[in-house]
Write a structure and sequence with these properties.
It contains six helices and 51 strands. It is mainly β. It folds into two domains: 104 residues, Carboxypeptidase-like, regulatory domain (Immunoglobulin-like, Sandwich), CATH 2.60.40; 665 residues, Maltoporin, Chain A (Beta Barrel), CATH 2.40.170. The strands form eight sheets. The chain has a 22-stranded antiparallel β-barrel. A hairpin with a 5-residue loop joins strand 19 and strand 20. The longest helix is centred in the N-terminal third of the chain and has 15 residues. InterPro entries: Beta-barrel_TonB, Beta-barrel_TonB_sf, CarboxyPept-like_regulatory, Plug_dom, Plug_dom_sf, TonB-dep_rcpt-like. It comes from Flammeovirga agarivorans. This is TonB-dependent receptor.
Length: 925
């Protein structure tokens, strides 16, 4: 950390020291700061650029007379004479006049520039709804490579991370990922997730975006299934003239190398499908190859990021085309310790097993993006957008499990029962989207737009192999591993896909009403048919009745003569199912702007839902309960109203209300059983789970003082009826979704951006409080006064926050932007406070993620007008990600590895992800 601070000091210190000269601000006659305007000092030909706060500063000018020349596109050049005296600084506030000729041309031929930070700030200011925008310019300067990590910089947003520490799902305003949805260019996309409807945001490379929009208050023309917010990815658009960019970087993860080489296997040897899917009714062990399941070790696996985009306009600027591609290879993982816990009769927590886990994960992320737009004439245009994203995660999870009871002695290093489990798993997720859109200005007061959408998402886990051995430890020495017991080797296949066909239509009327400054009426609708299929197969193997000792009977997995336990596979698996969700929606919306100061937007949306599933191979129990298929239909009316009062040209006061509906995930209402989740709990669907209804209130004050500065403070309140959460039933051995009465969620958001010429600070803080009361179980003596009476289970009501909601979320970024020197620096820190990680069926036994800090660094240096070199550094603090149960450990448990002192909370999980670095080059052509 000290080296990083020293580097920043060396970079910035020479720029802080300055002598006398000319300073001031540059604004347009319309009052807008002209950020990026070029200032020339003649006759010495010295130049500077207007900073992010609209000011400039030119140092080291000798005493004398000078001519200031200011140039900015869309404004007339300004020429002014100034005199610098021996007394030092001269202040000049300069105002440029709008160039009417250039402005008219921009209106006729130009398109709105969406990639700049200025455009993002302007969108936030003029929008009719509560939203935050991150521009492509800000994304490029950030340390983040995928959309998930970008969105965590937005106020009120935190991340749910995967086991390699990479961001995956967004939690908006304390609302779990199920309460948000994702759009690409304004249309919803399906999810490749094998159980849920939310989209893993780590699928999308950030360098394909023009901007990222987070909307926190829904309007009637938006789909109504969000409570927290909506994340919209606006992909790259065709430029006004030929342009392109090439990006290439290479890096390293400090987790791997030395004593911890990167562990992998021959992923190309994975069987693409099991024997049963190929028509084999009765498989034999010879049908399965084990040759690819041999451990391979590499001392260095490079992180590689490469991307290219190229675009232009043709046919007298009527046809615009852009093609962009991105490829990322990142080696990630963790050094982890996990504890299996139980509940004792006195209500305290037992530590039943300890697992030392090492994760080795190679991510290969690819994105392709192509967009064409054709301007038929000034009133009609069409766009055709296509995108394909592909993410392959090749992961080895190597586990040493120690039974922490019986003969376990953590002081002298004795363990009578241990096991070693190595899992080889490739997860391949893909999304394809094709959208044809048209915009038509039918007359001055009537326009229409439409979108025809085809999307398909898929998730494949081919040949998920788990190899289990047993062992023991004596005086810290591990005895040879043994293959014993049933199902020492399992081979599992999962596949699911989700296909959407949708049509959106919108009609907008803008009649003139004498007593209203601006009027808009909008009606439209949506038709979407969604079909999802899920398939599953698993085979189990053992090595016979005699325990095989490593070093004597075998050395690797290929030395074993495996015996198949279930040659017909899993014949009656509820993991095989088809489901559908058909949505029909219509809305009516109005917007009145009174005197160009007070705006009201409101209306109502109707959504008709037809949802259901079918199990082609149900178990007898499911048939007996009549659960082999299900179909539900319901209608929701979702009103909303938004008020915006323009206090001044630079400040707004907003308030809003909207109602929303959250449907269960696709597998959550299907009575399937999944025992291979990341947390190793069996999950069970619940056919009785109901949709959640949300009532949402917002209030926000906004101030945009000058340039890129902003200040926002707001509050929100959410009432959830029948919220869906998972609860762990230890007796039944699974977790399942269910509805838990009503819940409340409220909070305050503060968002500040302030620039001081070349220096800037960006900070946001969100406080969130939520409350839900559920019934929890606990143990008690049947007669509390009699210690010999039977132990019985009783229940009590427990109040707690919503799962995933952190009370405190904060971002702080220190910025330096010196356009003259071509240098950009961003030091970004994000903090996520304590939040519930997993729910328990027992009172006071939920698992909590401890507060987590992460610091990242990004530095860019322009070498010449076309070339930039950059450095990105991640997780500089290398803090541990930890999960605890808020029950005190006893003296015996205090001797267990990683646990604290007597009375400290029980540690359930601790992960270290280590640091990562990237060094790269961008070339614009």
């Amino acid at each position: 950390m000290s080296r990083i601070l020293t580097l920043l000091t060396l970079l910035l210190f020479p720029i802080i020291i300055h002598a006398g000269g000319i300073k001031g601000s540059v604004n347009g006659s319309d009052g807008e700061p002209l950020i990026g305007a070029v200032i020339s000092i003649e006759p010495i030909h010295k130049q500077s650029i207007v900073g992010m706060d609209g000011t400039f500063r030119i140092n080291d000018l000798p005493k004398g007379d000078y001519t200031i020349v200011v140039k900015y596109i869309g404004y007339k050049d300004l020429v002014k004479e100034v005199r610098v005296s021996s007394e030092g600084w001269v202040s000049n506030d300069l105002i440029l006049q709008v160039d009417a000729i250039q402005l008219d041309e921009a209106v006729v031929y130009g398109t709105k520039e969406r990639k700049t930070a200025e455009s993002a700030r302007a969108t936030e200011r003029v929008s009719s709804k509560v939203m935050t925008v991150v521009s492509a310019q800000d994304i490029e300067l950030s340390p983040d490579l995928n959309v998930a990590n970008v969105v965590q910089r937005v106020s009120g947003v935190s991340l749910e991370r995967n086991n390699s520490g990479d961001g995956q799902f967004a939690i908006v305003r304390g609302m779990d990922k199920r309460y948000n949805y994702t759009l690409v260019n304004g249309v919803k996309i399906p999810s490749p997730d094998n159980k849920n409807r939310y989209v893993p945001l780590d699928l999308f490379p950030s360098d394909l975006l023009d901007r990222l929009e987070v909307t926190k208050a829904l309007t009637p023309d938006m789909e109504g299934d969000a409570v927290g917010g909506v994340i919209n990815m606006e992909m790259k658009d065709a430029p006004e003239s030929y342009s392109g960019q090439l990006n290439l970087s290479i890096g390293n993860n400090t987790l791997f190398g030395g004593n911890n080489p990167f562990m992998t296997w021959n992923t190309g040897g994975n069987m693409t499908s099991p024997p049963s899917w190929n028509g084999v009714a009765r498989a034999d062990a010879s049908d399965f190859s084990n040759q690819h399941l041999l451990n391979q070790y590499k001392n260095y696996v490079p992180n590689i990021v490469a991307g290219m985009s190229i675009g232009n306009r043709f046919m007298d600027d009527k046809l615009g085309v852009i093609v962009a591609g991105s490829y990322q290879q990142t080696a990630r993982g963790s050094e982890s310790t996990w504890f299996d816990t139980g509940m004792l009769a006195d209500g305290s927590t037992s530590l039943d097993n300890m697992e030392d886990r090492n994760y080795y994960q190679l991510q290969k992320r690819m994105g392709l993006h192509a967009k064409m737009d054709y301007r038929i004439n000034q009133d009609h245009s069409i766009q055709w957008y296509n995108a394909f994203v592909h993410l392959q995660n090749d992961q080895v999870r190597d586990v040493t499990r120690t039974r922490t009871w019986g003969s376990y002695d953590p002081i002298n290093g004795n363990a009578g029962e241990m096991s070693y489990v190595t899992r080889y798993r490739s997860t391949i997720q893909q999304i394809f989207n094709s959208t044809l859109t048209g915009q038509h200005q039918l007359n001055p007061w009537f326009k229409a737009d439409w979108s025809a959408v085809y999307s398909k998402a898929s998730n494949s886990i081919p040949d998920n192999a788990k190899f289990t051995r047993s062992g023991s430890m004596n005086n810290w020495v591990h005895e040879p591993e043994r293959i014993a017991g049933r199902s020492a080797l399992t081979r599992r296949w999962d596949y699911n896909d989700d296909e959407d066909i949708a049509l959106y239509t919108n009609f907008t009327f803008t009649p003139e009403i004498s007593f209203i400054y601006d009027t808009e009426f909008k009606v439209g609708g949506l038709v979407r048919n969604k079909n999802r299929s899920n398939d599953f197969e698993q085979y189990r193997f053992n090595a016979g009745n005699r325990a095989l000792v490593k070093g004597e009977d075998w050395n690797d997995i290929t030395d074993v003569d495996w015996i198949i336990e279930n040659p017909t596979g899993v014949n009656y698996s509820p993991n095989r199912y088809q489901s559908h969700e058909n949505i029909r929606a219509a809305y009516g919306q109005f917007k009145f702007d009174f005197s160009n100061r007070f705006e009201v937007l409101g209306g109502v949306r109707m959504e008709h839902t037809d949802i259901g599933y079918y199990l082609p191979q149900p178990t007898n129990e499911i048939v007996e309960n009549g659960l082999e298929e299900m179909n539900q239909t319901y209608v929701d009316f979702l009103p909303s109203i938004h008020f915006k009062y323009k206090i001044s040209e630079k400040s707004n006061l907003r308030s809003s209300y909207f109602k929303s509906v959250i449907r269960p995930g696709f597998s959550e209402f299907v009575p399937i059983e999944n025992g291979d989740t990341e947390d190793d709990w069996t999950e069970m669907g619940n056919p009785l789970v109901e949709r959640t209804i949300g009532h949402n209130l917002d209030l926000r004050y906004e101030l945009f003082p000058k340039g890129m500065d902003k200040f926002m403070i707001g509050g929100f309140y959410k009432k959830l009826i029948n919220p869906i959460e998972y609860s762990l039933n230890r007796q039944a051995g699974y977790i399942m979704p269910d509805n838990y009465g009503d819940a409340e969620n409220m909070g305050i958001e503060i968002d500040v951006v302030k620039y001081f010429n070349k220096f800037g600070i960006s900070a946001n803080y969100t406080y969130t409080h939520s409350s839900i009361t559920t019934e929890k179980a606990y143990y008690e003596r049947e007669n509390p006064e009699d210690d010999t009476s039977d132990i019985v289970i009783r229940s009590a009501l427990e109040e707690r926050p919503l799962q995933g909601q952190a009370a405190h979320i904060a971002n702080l970024s220190l910025l330096y932007k010196n356009t003259d020197a071509g240098l950009d620096v961003q030091l970004a820190t994000v903090y996520t406070g304590d939040r519930i990680h997993s729910l328990s069926a027992f009172y006071g036994n939920d698992m909590w993620q401890r507060g987590f800090f992460q610091m990242d660094l990004s530095v860019e240096k322009r070498i010449n007008p076309k070339t930039i070199v950059y450095l990105k550094a991640y997780n500089l603090l290398d803090n541990a990600y930890e999960v605890e149960i808020r029950q005190p450990i006893n003296e015996a448990q205090s001797y267990f590895p990683k646990q604290g002192d007597v009375g400290d909370n029980v540690l359930v999980r601790q992960d270290f992800y280590r640091r990562q670095f990237l060094l790269g080059l961008k070339y614009n052509f």
